Amino acid sequence: EVILSVRDLTASIDGNPILKGVNFEVKAGEVHAIMGLNGSGKSTFSKALAGHPAYEVTGGTVIYKGQNLLEMEPEERALNGIFLAFQYPMEIPGVSNLDFLRVAYNSRRKHEGLEEIDTFDFEDLVQEKLDIVKMDASFLERSLNEGFSGGEKKRNEILQMALLEPSLAILDETDSGLDIDALKIVANGVNQLATPENGTILITHYQRLLDYIEPDYVHVMAAGRIIRTGGKELALELESRGYDWLLEEEAVEV
Ligand code: ADP
Ligand code: MG
Ligand code: MG
């Protein structure tokens, strides 16, 4: 079953073409890693999929579970099961983490025609999910992301993901300067939450992350295109040889 199908996607920022024809497909049960040098367009790709208003899609098609994703508002994309960590506000003073999670969870339920979850049932459910990220319950009473450490923000992202059970999770780790603990949290979360029914896109320039996650496919993005796709061995080769040889083989100008 195909979850996401991207064909010849082009996108611009402020009129500058960044994505220059991305082709990409995710089937149920697959974990895809997208790697590449800084500035290759990885975050632009994830933001275009999220529907970020600054990223103008200028061509191509994106089909998500049989629907035209490009016609969906960013909120609709989330309600239909696309999870993008960065779409959530960084800090919301005065809103507890628990309240925020409940609102997000209930919007999803409402969209599926279900009633709001009982407050106590929700707390039980969250408690269960806290174990996945090894977080203490006191964490839930804190203001959303206010004063969270990098590792706590990561844990919270994975907690959101565990609750929302997305059909397609897109994790862009590139700019977050993850330490080894945060890497392991992300890796554990991905490993536990990847199921035969959903798909995961892991954007990273850290080969290290792939020491903890076994992706089904590794893609290399350069100059706004996916220039090569392979298995885990491709990531290992990039680690030992760098990117230059590949850019040369594919005649990519960067
Ligand atoms: P990556 O995530 O692979 O490092 P990005 O998608 O962030 O790459 O960036 C791709 C290109 O788009 C870079 O040349 C970057 O400078 C440019 N770019 C990214 N965001 C913006 C922006 N908001 N305005 C203008 N140019 C941008
Ligand atoms: Mg799997
Ligand atoms: Mg990036």
TrEMBL record:
Keywords: ATP-binding, Nucleotide-binding. CDD domains: ABC_FeS_Assembly. Gene3D superfamilies: P-loop containing nucleotide triphosphate hydrolases. GO terms for molecular function: ATP binding; ATP hydrolysis activity. Transmembrane segments: none annotated. Pfam families: ABC_tran. Residues 4-248 form the ABC transporter domain. NCBIfam families: sufC. PANTHER family: ABC TRANSPORTER I FAMILY MEMBER 6, CHLOROPLASTIC (PTHR43204). Belongs to the ABC transporter superfamily. Ycf16 family. This is Fe-S cluster assembly ATPase SufC. It comes from Limnofasciculus baicalensis BBK-W-15. The gene is sufC.
